[in-house]
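RECORD TYPE: inverse folding
INPUT: structure tokens
STRUCTURE:
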């Protein structure tokens, strides 16, 4: 494991952007302690509103973790009241804005310092995302839409939580430019490959045969994989089925990363997915997850790649690492960094992708 500093990414330890913190279905009025960006949070859903709240975890009274307790009677009786949460230790209550709004045993005024930080969150694509920003600014890009999300012909999977891995996110992002690993790791018969860097997006377009996801020697697999910011990768894939792969990764500590995977599959049978389609979609998600696990296993056991020994034929790793720096530096530098890498890069020996013309 290596740190942001060792990769030379910039001023900030953790990148600026939207980051997945949980699958929506797992966020209830039973608070959960979660850890990201080297800090502890309390995550819960308001009782009647259904609103998701993410607060800094430690109570300003005496430092208790708001969401890692099961035995206090406050926790046993239910800590969430409306959109507020009670501390398990002395039952101070905090609103969704993080301000203390009730101290049960004190009739004096509530001190202004009785507050925790409340984080901007959004529910999207079946998940909860937080806007993380060391400058404390407003979001500077939107979370992307998947046009088929509400289409009944598409089956939406549940998120596979791959847990945490002792790998800096840089090593995961490297994958978007790694043309040379597709054949050895995934059994792709790559014919087309290109990368494009545009603003906050890094795009990979590729095409070719595939040993497992389409019949070998037969049909083509065309994929367009796009990083929307530093953590959310959406891949449109046409193969055995039309599908979308969602891969989200979020820094837990400097050099430790949590990863999720999900798949949306278009049903083969028609306008509304049947039970049979759901079973087929789950099997396809497992196949896609198995393909992703091939990358995961390499990451898990490799040493950090601080300075690679790149040769002709490797993808544009250095451009990609430069693109990634925009999230680790003040937003004042963003445009300059984006401009320095903007464009389409063809991998040596591969034709450009037909998807470029389609887009
Ligand atoms: S430590 Fe939280 S109420 Fe006392
Ligand atoms: Fe891969």
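DESIGNED SEQUENCE:
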């Amino acid at each position: 494991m290596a740190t942001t500093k060792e990769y030379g990414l910039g001023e900030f330890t953790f990148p600026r952007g939207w980051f997945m913190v949980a699958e929506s279905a797992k966020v209830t009025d039973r608070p959960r302690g979660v850890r990201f960006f080297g800090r502890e949070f309390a995550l819960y859903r308001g009782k009647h509103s259904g609103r998701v709240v993410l607060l800094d975890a430690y109570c300003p009274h005496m430092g208790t973790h708001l969401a890692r307790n099961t035995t206090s009677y406050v926790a046993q009786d239910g800590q969430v009241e409306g959109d507020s949460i009670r501390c398990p230790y002395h039952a101070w209550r905090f609103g969704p804005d993080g301000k203390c709004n009730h101290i049960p045993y004190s009739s004096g005024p509530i001190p202004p310092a009785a507050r925790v930080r409340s984080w901007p969150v959004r529910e999207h694509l079946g998940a909860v995302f937080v806007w993380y920003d060391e400058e404390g600014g407003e979001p500077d890009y939107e979370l992307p839409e998947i046009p088929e999300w509400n289409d009944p012909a598409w089956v939406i999977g549940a998120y596979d939580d791959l847990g945490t891995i002792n790998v800096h996110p840089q090593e995961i992002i490297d994958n978007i430019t790694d043309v040379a690993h597709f054949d050895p790791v995934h059994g792709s018969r790559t014919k087309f490959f290109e990368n494009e860097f545009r603003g906050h997006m890094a795009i990979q377009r590729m095409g070719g045969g595939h040993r497992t996801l389409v019949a070998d020697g037969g049909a083509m697999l065309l994929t367009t994989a796009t990083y929307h910011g530093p953590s959310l990768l959406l891949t449109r894939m046409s193969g055995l089925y039309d599908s979308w792969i969602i891969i989200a990764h979020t820094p837990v500590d400097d050099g430790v990363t949590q990863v999720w995977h999900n798949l949306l599959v278009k049903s083969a049978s028609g306008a509304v997915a049947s039970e049979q389609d759901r079973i087929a979609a789950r099997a396809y998600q497992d196949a896609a997850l198995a393909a992703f696990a091939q990358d995961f296993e390499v990451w898990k056991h490799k040493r950090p790649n601080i300075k690679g020994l790149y040769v002709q034929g490797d993808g544009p790793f250095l451009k990609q690492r430069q693109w990634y720096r925009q999230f680790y530096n003040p937003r004042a530098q963003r445009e300059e960094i984006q401009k320095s890498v903007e464009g389409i890069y063809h991998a040596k020996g591969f034709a450009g992708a037909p998807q470029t013309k389609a887009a």
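NOTES: Residues 275-301 form the longest helix (27 residues).
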